[in-house]
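Board notes (copied after class):
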Amino acid sequence: MARVTQVLSIGEVARRIAETLELIEVIRANSDNIDYAEMILVDDGTESGITT
């Protein structure tokens, strides 16, 4: 079984595929687009954290 060795913030994903962060946020908000365990919330000390 493969292990996760790297995660990217959704901001970095948006930059890499040349899309707006707002579009990626809309896609992320629709649970039909995301399989279980593909999104990780990282606690960075802020109220909202970082979605990766």
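Comment from the instructor: Residues 10-51 form one domain. The chain has one domain: 10-51.
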